[in-house]
C-alpha cells in the first residue's frame, strides 16, 4: 500500500472512531437533563472553574436550568440545583480517596450492608444520647476544659484550630470509645493534623480530578496519595481502639458505640455472609470520627472569624448571654428558648460559610425517571446545598452575614426549611443534631468568658475560603481572646 493509501486509511479509521463516539454520546445523552456537549476523554472539565466548582455549578444552573448534566471523565454527573430536588436518591457516589472504606461504614458505602449498618448506627447513637440529654452532658463536661485551654493563651495571638478541634474531638471520642484527650496529647494532635489535612486535600482541584479520572491517577504521584495514606492511618487508629475493646468487652454492660457494634458482630459471626466485620466496624467508626470532628471544629473556627469581622454582632451576643446565663453557669440547650439571637447567629454562621456547598455525591442505584428525564443507573448526583443556603427569595442579600435571616419581626427565632447546612435528602448526616448542639453550646461558652480581638481592622478581614470544593475551608488566622471582666 502506498503512503497515500496508508494516510487515507488512517483518516477513514479516525473519522469512523470519531463518528462512533459522537453517535454514542448523542444517543446516550438524548434523554438526560440538558448540558454542554462533552469532549472526548475530558468531558466537560473545561466548563468548570476547578478552584471554585460550586460557583461553576451556579453559573451553569443559570444557563441550563436547575437540573443539568455534566460529563467528567467516564462519569455522568447530574447536578440538582434548587429546593425541589433535595429529597431524591439515596445511593452514595464513589470517593476514590476513601478507597480503604469501599463498601464499608456509613458514609462511603453503597453495598448491601449499607442500610443495615446505617440503621444500627443510628439506633446505637440514639441509645447513647445522640441529640438528647446524653450528648448535652458530654458537651457541658467538655466546656470547662476548652475554656481553660483558651484562658491559657493569656490574651496573646493564637490559632484556634487545635483547641476547638480537640473540643469537638473529645465529644465524639467519648461516644465512640469512651475516651477523652488532654489538649496537648500527642495522639490527639496527630489525629487533628490528619483530619484537617484531609478536609483540605479533598477540597482541592487535584482531588476533584482524581475522583473523576481515577484510572489515570493510579499511576501519578501527588497529594491524592497523601490523602489516601491519611485515610488508612485514621482507619488503623479506629481498628486499634476496636481491638482494645474486644479484649475487655462485657456484653452485659456496653460502654460505648464501639462495644455495641462489636456485640452486633458477635451475633452474626456464624452467618454465611455476616454484615458486621471488624473492617466494616472500623470504617464506620472512622467515618463518624471524621465527620463528628471536622464539621464542628471547622465551623467553630470559621464562625469566630466571622464574629471578628462583625463586632456589633458579638456585642449583642454578650448582652444576651449576660441577661440569660450570667457569668458562671454552664450554658444548656434549654437556654436557646430565651436566646433567639444566639440561635440565629449560629444558624447564620452555618448558612453563610456554606461548609459543604455541593453536599456529598449521591448515586442513582437504578434507572430513574426524574422530572421527565431518565437518570441512568450509576450516574452521580450532586444535590447542591448552596443553592438552598443562598436562595435570594428565602434569604434576602444572601451574600451578606445577617442574623436577621433567622429572626422574625418580633426578634423571635425563625426556622427555614431551606436551612440544609450539612446534608439533604435520604442520606442525612447522622451526627447533624450533635453538631448543632455543639455549635450552640461552644459558641455561647466562649463568648460568655471572652471578648474577641482581631489583629487587624475588622473591615480588612477577608472571609473568602482558601479552598472551595468538597468543603469551604476557612482562611488561616490568629486572634486574641481577652477574659471578660466579670468572668
UniProtKB/TrEMBL annotation:
Q: How does it sit in the membrane?
A: Peripheral membrane protein
* Record entry for activity regulation: The omega-1 hydroxylase activity is stimulated by cytochrome b5.
Catalytic reaction equation(s): dodecanoate + reduced [NADPH--hemoprotein reductase] + O2 = 11-hydroxydodecanoate + oxidized [NADPH--hemoprotein reductase] + H2O + H(+); an organic molecule + reduced [NADPH--hemoprotein reductase] + O2 = an alcohol + oxidized [NADPH--hemoprotein reductase] + H2O + H(+); tetradecanoate + reduced [NADPH--hemoprotein reductase] + O2 = 13-hydroxytetradecanoate + oxidized [NADPH--hemoprotein reductase] + H2O + H(+); (5Z,8Z,11Z)-eicosatrienoate + reduced [NADPH--hemoprotein reductase] + O2 = 19-hydroxy-(5Z,8Z,11Z)-eicosatrienoate + oxidized [NADPH--hemoprotein reductase] + H2O + H(+)
GO terms for cellular component: endoplasmic reticulum membrane; mitochondrial inner membrane
Q: Does the keyword tRNA-binding apply?
A: no
Subcellular location field:
Endoplasmic reticulum membrane; Microsome membrane; Mitochondrion inner membrane; Mitochondrion
In terms of InterPro entries, this protein maps to:
Cyt_P450, Cyt_P450_E_grp-I, Cyt_P450_E_grp-I_CYP2E-like, Cyt_P450_sf, Cytochrome_P450_fam2
| Sites where the protein binds heme | 429
User: Which coenzymes or cofactors are required?
Assistant: heme
* Record flagged with keyword Membrane: yes
Q: What keywords were assigned to this record?
A: Endoplasmic reticulum, Fatty acid metabolism, Heme, Iron, Lipid metabolism, Membrane, Metal-binding, Microsome, Mitochondrion, Mitochondrion inner membrane, Monooxygenase, NADP, Oxidoreductase
EC number, UniProt record:
1.14.13.n7, 1.14.14.1
**Biological process GO terms, please?**
epoxygenase P450 pathway; xenobiotic metabolic process
Q: Which GO-annotated molecular functions does the record name?
A: arachidonate epoxygenase activity; heme binding; Hsp70 protein binding; Hsp90 protein binding; iron ion binding; oxidoreductase activity, acting on paired donors, with incorporation or reduction of molecular oxygen, reduced flavin or flavoprotein as one donor, and incorporation of one atom of oxygen
Its pathway?
Lipid metabolism; fatty acid metabolism
Q: What does this protein do?
A: A cytochrome P450 monooxygenase involved in the metabolism of fatty acids. Mechanistically, uses molecular oxygen inserting one oxygen atom into a substrate, and reducing the second into a water molecule, with two electrons provided by NADPH via cytochrome P450 reductase (NADPH--hemoprotein reductase). Catalyzes the hydroxylation of carbon-hydrogen bonds. Hydroxylates fatty acids specifically at the omega-1 position displaying the highest catalytic activity for saturated fatty acids. May be involved in the oxidative metabolism of xenobiotics.
Q: How does it assemble?
A: Interacts with chaperones HSP70 and HSP90; this interaction is required for initial targeting to mitochondria.
- Family named by the database record: Belongs to the cytochrome P450 family.
The protein in question is named: Cytochrome P450 2E1
Its taxonomic placement starts with: Eukaryota, Metazoa, Chordata, Craniata, Vertebrata
Amino acid at each position: 500500500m502506498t503512503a497515500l493509501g496508508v494516510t487515507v486509511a488512517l483518516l477513514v479509521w479516525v473519522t469512523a472512531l470519531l463518528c462512533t463516539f459522537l453517535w454514542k454520546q448523542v444517543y446516550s445523552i438524548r434523554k438526560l437533563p440538558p448540558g454542554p456537549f462533552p469532549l472526548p476523554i475530558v468531558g466537560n472539565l473545561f466548563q468548570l472553574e476547578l478552584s471554585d466548582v460550586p460557583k461553576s455549578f451556579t453559573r451553569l444552573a443559570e444557563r441550563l436550568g436547575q437540573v443539568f448534566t455534566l460529563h467528567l471523565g467516564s462519569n455522568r454527573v447530574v447536578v440538582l440545583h434548587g429546593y425541589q430536588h433535595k429529597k431524591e436518591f439515596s445511593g452514595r457516589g464513589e470517593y476514590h480517596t476513601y478507597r480503604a472504606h469501599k463498601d464499608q461504614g456509613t458514609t462511603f458505602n453503597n453495598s448491601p450492608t449499607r442500610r443495615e449498618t446505617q440503621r444500627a448506627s443510628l439506633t446505637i447513637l440514639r441509645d447513647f444520647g445522640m441529640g438528647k440529654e446524653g450528648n448535652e452532658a458530654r458537651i457541658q463536661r467538655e466546656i470547662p476544659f476548652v475554656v481553660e485551654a483558651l484562658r491559657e493563651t493569656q490574651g496573646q495571638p493564637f490559632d484556634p484550630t487545635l483547641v476547638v478541634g480537640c473540643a469537638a474531638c473529645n465529644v465524639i471520642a467519648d461516644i465512640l470509645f469512651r475516651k477523652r484527650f488532654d489538649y496537648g496529647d500527642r495522639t490527639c494532635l496527630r489525629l487533628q493534623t490528619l483530619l484537617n489535612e484531609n478536609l483540605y486535600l479533598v477540597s482541592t482541584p487535584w482531588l476533584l480530578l482524581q475522583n473523576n479520572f481515577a484510572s489515570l491517577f493510579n499511576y501519578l504521584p501527588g497529594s491524592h496519595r497523601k490523602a489516601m495514606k491519611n485515610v488508612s492511618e485514621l482507619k488503623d487508629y479506629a481498628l486499634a481502639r476496636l481491638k482494645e475493646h474486644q479484649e475487655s468487652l462485657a456484653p452485659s454492660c456496653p460502654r460505648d458505640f464501639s462495644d455495641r457494634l462489636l456485640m452486633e458482630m458477635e451475633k452474626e459471626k456464624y452467618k454465611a455472609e455476616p454484615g458486621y466485620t471488624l473492617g466494616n466496624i472500623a470504617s464506620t467508626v472512622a467515618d463518624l470520627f471524621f465527620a463528628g470532628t471536622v464539621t464542628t471544629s471547622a465551623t467553630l473556627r470559621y464562625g469566630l472569624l466571622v464574629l471578628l469581622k462583625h463586632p456589633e454582632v458579638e456585642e449583642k451576643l454578650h448582652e444576651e448571654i449576660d441577661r440569660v446565663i450570667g457569668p458562671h453557669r454552664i450554658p444548656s440547650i434549654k437556654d436557646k428558648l430565651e436566646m433567639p439571637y444566639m440561635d440565629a447567629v449560629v444558624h447564620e454562621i452555618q448558612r453563610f460559610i456554606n461548609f459543604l456547598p455541593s453536599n456529598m455525591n449521591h448515586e442513582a442505584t437504578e434507572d430513574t425517571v426524574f422530572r421527565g428525564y431518565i437518570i441512568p443507573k450509576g450516574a452521580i448526583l450532586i444535590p447542591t446545598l448552596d443553592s438552598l443556603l443562598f436562595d435570594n427569595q428565602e434569604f434576602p442579600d444572601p451574600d451578606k452575614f445577617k442574623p436577621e435571616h433567622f429572626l422574625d419581626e418580633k426578634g423571635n427565632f425563625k426556622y427555614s426549611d431551606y436551612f440544609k447546612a450539612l446534608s439533604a435528602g435520604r442520606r442525612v448526616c447522622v451526627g447533624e443534631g450533635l453538631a448543632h448542639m455543639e455549635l450552640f453550646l461552644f459558641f455561647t461558652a466562649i463568648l460568655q468568658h471572652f471578648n474577641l480581638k482581631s489583629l487587624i481592622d475588622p473591615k480588612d478581614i477577608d472571609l473568602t475560603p482558601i479552598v472551595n470544593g468538597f468543603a469551604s475551608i476557612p482562611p488561616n488566622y490568629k486572634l486574641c481572646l481577652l477574659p471578660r471582666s466579670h468572668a
